[in-house]
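As a warm-up, study this chain.
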Amino acid sequence: VQLQASGGGLVQAGGSLRLSCAASGRTSGRMFSNNAMGWFRQAPGKEREFVASISWNGGSTAYAESVKGRFTISRDRVKNTMYLQMNSLKPEDTAVYLCAAARGSQITSATSGYNYWGQGTQITVSS
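Now compare it with the structure written out below.
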């Protein structure tokens, strides 16, 4: 299973971006249908941190406090794609954003709960 994140770029503070995470590979369809997914981010010199998670059927979502009310996670099980709509971006949102597939079907904020990771896409928010 491969995960490919895209949609990153440079944006001014207050702007918006939409990230996508596409799953591919021989078992990607089954994995994407049954497993929770998540977004994490990592800024230079900092630990990887949880951003958002969505359950296998999209029925449950969870967000880090720092992005709650500004970011929205969603998924399209037909397209095997997950999204992160980011609004009201702040300079502190600057990081590499990574998508990941969870080991189970329910939302989790723990990095140990994920066993497939994408390469990441850079988001830079200028002030």
